[in-house]
Amino acid sequence: MLGGDRDAFRALVERESAGLVRICHRILGDLHESEDAAQEAFVTAFRSLSSWRGDGPFGAWLAQIAVRIALRQAARRRPVAWIDAVQPEASGLSGTMTAADRAARARLIDGAVDGRSSVDPASIAVRAERTTAIRRAVARLDDPYREVVALRFFGDLTLAEIAAASDRPLGTVKTHLHRGLIRLRAIVDAEGIDR
Amino acid sequence: MNRRFGSEELDGSTERRGTVAEEADLFALGREIEAIAASDRVVPSQGFEDRVLAAIAATPLPRPTGAAGLAARQGRPIALLLALRDTWRVAWSGGRPLAVRAQAAAFVLVVVLLVGSLGGIAAIGGFGLLRSSPVGSNPASFAVPSPEPSSTETPSSSPEPSESSQPSESPGASDTGESPEPSATSHPAAGSPAAGSGSAGSGSAGSGGTPTAEPTETATPSGDGTQTPRPTETPSTSSTPSGSDDHGGG
Questions:
Q1: Which domain holds residue A139?
Q2: Is residue A71 part of a domain?
Q3: Which residues contact B3 (CB under 8 A, 6 or more apart)?
Q4: For residue A17, is it within any domain?
Q5: Cβ A43–B53 below 8 Å, yes or no?
Q6: What is the pLDDT of residues A19-70, one digit of tens each?
Q7: Which residues of A75-109 are buried (b: 16+ CB within 10 A; e: fewer)?
């Protein structure tokens, strides 16, 4: 495969395509965009086979390429402001929520995080909004932290795999993850995405 | 596949650890992102793999020299260096077909020869420039400043310090108009002999300008300008009061 054998690469595509599309979907949130990003990642990997060092899993290297492409695509997006027919104050989804609204909202998200997700439309709506906000916040991170956070949480890579794929020391990757989470928390707080 | 985010993943980070509440907040955020990722169970649509393989079929075969050539055409030196590093790695690492490694090795060899030949031409050109430059006049120009230090030595041997010592000794010979300089030189001469000459000197001092030996001694310092600036003689003149006391006492 490293010599450019297309048949060998076909087996790789069949094995990695579902995971790669899922990684891109966690960042982008749209299936068609995710498939486009995953396809671009496969083509880029095929063209750059000579630059693969071979000191880590091939899937980690492929995931790194896909995460970079998806993050770049997410950063190119224009922010879309959805106009709701219901007034924000009435729906309780704005930054001017009362303490009771915040508590109820936190209970909904905690239920979703703990796996006790209900079929309640309000719960689903709140969770979807929160998911979109966190995806957007990850895409707004600065460059070294954004990639490490996305690879760790969306790419399901260990820190050792991230260090091997990005050719950085493990301590540096840990520092980037820590700072990335701190900055992500600041972005989430600044956007008023309260729990 | 999904791994639980734990506190050990931040151990070893150089970032300053926050309070317990801040750390718990960070972990809650990490767990929330994990939950978002775990809840995403999307699968690719039908025909996705065929589309990917069709796109790969339209892509030219990967060549180890492709990235370097592209970087050279686009004028990106850093990308060119990185591509050369990758080509070197492909050439000398295992796990790749022999044809790919031979192509990479040939490209590396061509680059090394090119860089070596350009460096050799530059070195030869620089050496030729150095050899063709005129040589004759430069050493002469360096020889010109050498007399200047010799001219600076003459002010250093100026007799002015000897003249400055003369007024200090003039009170001892204030009676005679010619005697100030001889009287200054006579005291060192009298100080070095222990007793015999000292008695003769005492007689001369008491009588005034009668001693004949003292003017002859003054002639030698005035003739040799170099001997007068000796500072070693001026301390001996300071010993002359003690000699005069001896004469006064005797």
A1: 6-79+131-190
A2: yes
A3: A156, A158
A4: yes
A5: no
A6: 999 999 999 888 999 999 999 999 988 888 766 766 678 888 899 999 999 9
A7: eeeeeeeeeeeeeeeeebbeeebeeeeeeebeebb
Of B43, B59, B95, the CB nearest to A2: B95
**CA A163 – CA A157 distance, rounded (Å):** 10
Q: Of B56, B246, B43, B49, nearest to A46 (Cα)?
A: B56
With CA atoms as reference, report the closest residue to A41 among A56, A25, A53.
A25
| pLDDT band (50, 70, 90) for residue B73 | confident
CB contact under 8 A, A25 and B42: yes
Residue A156 lies in a domain: yes
Question: Hey, what are A49's tokens?
Answer: 């086979």
Q: Is the pLDDT of residue B104 over 50?
A: yes
Domain count, chain A: 1
Candidate from A71-75, A129-133, A191-195, B193-197 with smallest mean pLDDT? B193-197
Q: CATH number for the domain including A161?
A: 1.20.140
> Could you tell me which of A174, A175, A180, A94 has the C-alpha nearest to residue A140?
A180
Selection from B137, B246, B249, B161 nearest residue B198 by Cα:
B246
Query: What pLDDT is stored for residue A65 in this prediction?
Result: 93
Is B29's CB within 8 Å of A184's CB? yes
Whether this prediction's pTM lies above 0.90 is answered by no
> B71 CB contacts (<8 Å, ≥6 apart)?
B77, B79, B80, B82, B83
> A32-46, A68-82, A172-186, B28-42: lowest mean pLDDT where?
A68-82
